[in-house]
């Protein structure tokens, strides 16, 4: 993580143009931090299938898998082949696509599931079992001795087949710490590739996450994967805290879809990590592909991309207030920590409203190449826009009509009369 840049130089030619993330970022990162060395396990085709509206045909799964692979995610996690015959066949199909991403499937800690997973040809198996008192009593009914014995049996079998294997506890943050550390140490000892922590009910906060991951990092040598549900809105923050504490892998889904409120959203995580180590993220992932996969998934599950969605929401790079607009036009870094062009997006300065400023209107005049109009003209037109926008907001097309009419009338010195004739935005209809 780079230290904050020195922005005290007053020479305009040397002015900092790149975003300064924060003067409060640590100059030296935590020695255990993996902020600049993490992997994404993309679970839209597993966790995402648990979303209320989700039903993915094989063809749609293939389309999503290819779109995610184009971004450069490290792993794709698929629904357990034990779920249904089609799920089994889909695992085989996607495993045979020749994608760059490794293909995983997610199974119960059960030998029958493990054998089915191996038959599909996946690169690895993500094994899970509940360890909280709630799940042990009301779900599978097994004690920790049974869980440990079964985990060792299943992991050993999968490893013997030459496959990557992760062992995760379910409902980790409501499980007893001694139980967790005991079973993680046992599976680490037999060579599991990753252990997983799952905030299954979304109850954890970043401080709890940091402390648990940091403790686990001190007792196991293998990688650490984290899976965060978003019931209380902490999924991205928890993922970031986990990486700071030494986690190596984060589970995501497109638009965050999944059980209930879903999990860490892929786009949101990449935005957060871009702000932490921009070059690492740009070098590893094709951020311009995010919008495409979100549109594919949104259409498939019959939802719209939220207006305030990370990166791709239609408001993400829209600037409205006059003070904001002026600063953005001088230097986008004043109000943008993410560069829209790095994500294949564009910024938009909204000007057809009562909060607009003359600098934004002047910028639109320049875009339209209305070269005869001065700053005084821009200020005059801005006052008219505000007056009309008190009735209702103007579209950009409405504003353009007003600007062009004013410009044309200025050739005959009739421009002020032109403004007076407009008393209602509807008169500017294209």
UniProtKB/TrEMBL annotation:
<keyword id="KW-0479">Metal-binding</keyword>
<keyword id="KW-0464">Manganese</keyword>
<comment type="pathway">
    <text>Amino-acid biosynthesis; L-lysine biosynthesis via AAA pathway; L-alpha-aminoadipate from 2-oxoglutarate: step 1/5.</text>
</comment>
<dbReference type="GO" id="GO:0005739">
    <property type="term" value="C:mitochondrion"/>
</dbReference>
<keyword id="KW-0028">Amino-acid biosynthesis</keyword>
<keyword id="KW-0808">Transferase</keyword>
<dbReference type="InterPro" id="IPR048253">
    <property type="entry name" value="DRE_TIM_HCS_fun_bact"/>
</dbReference>
<keyword id="KW-0460">Magnesium</keyword>
<protein>
    <recommendedName>
        <fullName>homocitrate synthase</fullName>
        <ecNumber>2.3.3.14</ecNumber>
    </recommendedName>
</protein>
<comment type="similarity">
    <text>Belongs to the alpha-IPM synthase/homocitrate synthase family. Homocitrate synthase LYS20/LYS21 subfamily.</text>
</comment>
<dbReference type="InterPro" id="IPR054691">
    <property type="entry name" value="LeuA/HCS_post-cat"/>
</dbReference>
<dbReference type="InterPro" id="IPR000891">
    <property type="entry name" value="PYR_CT"/>
</dbReference>
<feature type="domain" description="Pyruvate carboxyltransferase">
    <location>
        <begin position="38"/>
        <end position="291"/>
    </location>
</feature>
<dbReference type="Pfam" id="PF00682">
    <property type="entry name" value="HMGL-like"/>
</dbReference>
<dbReference type="Pfam" id="PF22617">
    <property type="entry name" value="HCS_D2"/>
</dbReference>
<keyword id="KW-0457">Lysine biosynthesis</keyword>
<dbReference type="GO" id="GO:0004410">
    <property type="term" value="F:homocitrate synthase activity"/>
</dbReference>
<dbReference type="InterPro" id="IPR002034">
    <property type="entry name" value="AIPM/Hcit_synth_CS"/>
</dbReference>
<dbReference type="GO" id="GO:0019878">
    <property type="term" value="P:lysine biosynthetic process via aminoadipic acid"/>
</dbReference>
<dbReference type="InterPro" id="IPR013785">
    <property type="entry name" value="Aldolase_TIM"/>
</dbReference>
<dbReference type="InterPro" id="IPR011872">
    <property type="entry name" value="Homocitrate_synth"/>
</dbReference>
<dbReference type="GO" id="GO:0046872">
    <property type="term" value="F:metal ion binding"/>
</dbReference>
<dbReference type="InterPro" id="IPR050073">
    <property type="entry name" value="2-IPM_HCS-like"/>
</dbReference>
């Amino acid at each position: 993580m780079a230290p904050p840049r020195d922005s005290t130089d007053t020479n305009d030619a040397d002015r900092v143009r790149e975003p300064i993330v924060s003067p409060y970022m640590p100059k030296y990162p935590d020695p255990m931090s993996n902020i600049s060395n993490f992997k994404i396990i993309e679970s839209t085709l597993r966790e995402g299938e648990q979303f209320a509206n989700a039903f993915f045909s094989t063809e749609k799964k293939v389309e999503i898998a290819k779109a995610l692979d184009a971004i450069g995610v490290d792993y794709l996690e698929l629904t357990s082949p034990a779920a249904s015959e089609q799920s089994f066949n889909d695992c085989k199909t996607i495993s045979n696509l020749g994608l760059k991403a490794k293909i995983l499937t997610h199974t119960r800690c059960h030998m029958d599931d493990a054998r089915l997973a191996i038959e599909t040809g996946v690169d690895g198996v993500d094994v899970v079992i509940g360890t909280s008192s709630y799940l042990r009593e009301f779900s599978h009914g097994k004690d920790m001795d049974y869980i440990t014995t079964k985990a060792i049996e299943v992991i050993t079998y999968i490893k013997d087949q030459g496959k990557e294997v992760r062992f995760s506890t379910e409902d980790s943050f409501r499980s007893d710490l001694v139980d967790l550390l005991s079973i993680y140490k046992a599976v680490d000892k037999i060579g599991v590739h990753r252990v997983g922590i799952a905030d299954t009910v979304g109850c954890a906060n970043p401080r709890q996450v940091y402390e648990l991951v940091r403790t686990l990092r001190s007792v196991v040598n293998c990688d650490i994967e984290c899976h965060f549900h978003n019931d209380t809105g902490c999924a991205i923050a928890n993922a970031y805290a986990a990486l700071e504490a030494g986690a190596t892998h984060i589970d995501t889904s497109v638009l965050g879809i999944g059980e209930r409120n879903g999990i860490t959203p892929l786009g949101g995580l990449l935005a957060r990590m871009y702000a932490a180590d921009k070059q690492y993220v740009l070098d590893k992932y094709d951020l311009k592909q995010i919008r495409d996969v979100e549109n594919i998934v949104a259409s498939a599950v019959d939802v719209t991309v939220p207006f305030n969605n990370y990166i791709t929401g239609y408001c993400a790079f829209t600037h409205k207030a006059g003070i904001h607009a002026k600063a953005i036009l001088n230097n986008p870094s004043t109000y943008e920590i993410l560069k829209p062009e790095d994500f294949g997006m564009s910024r938009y300065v909204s000007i057809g409203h009562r909060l607009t400023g003359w600098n934004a209107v002047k910028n639109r005049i320049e875009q339209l190449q209305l070269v005869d109009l001065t700053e005084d003209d821009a200020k005059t037109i801005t006052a008219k826009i505000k007056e009309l926008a008190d009735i209702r907001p103007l579209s950009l097309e409405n504003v353009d009509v007003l600007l062009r009419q004013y410009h044309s009338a200025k050739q005959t010195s009739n421009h002020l009369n032109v403004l007076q004739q407009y008393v209602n935005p509807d008169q500017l209809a294209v």
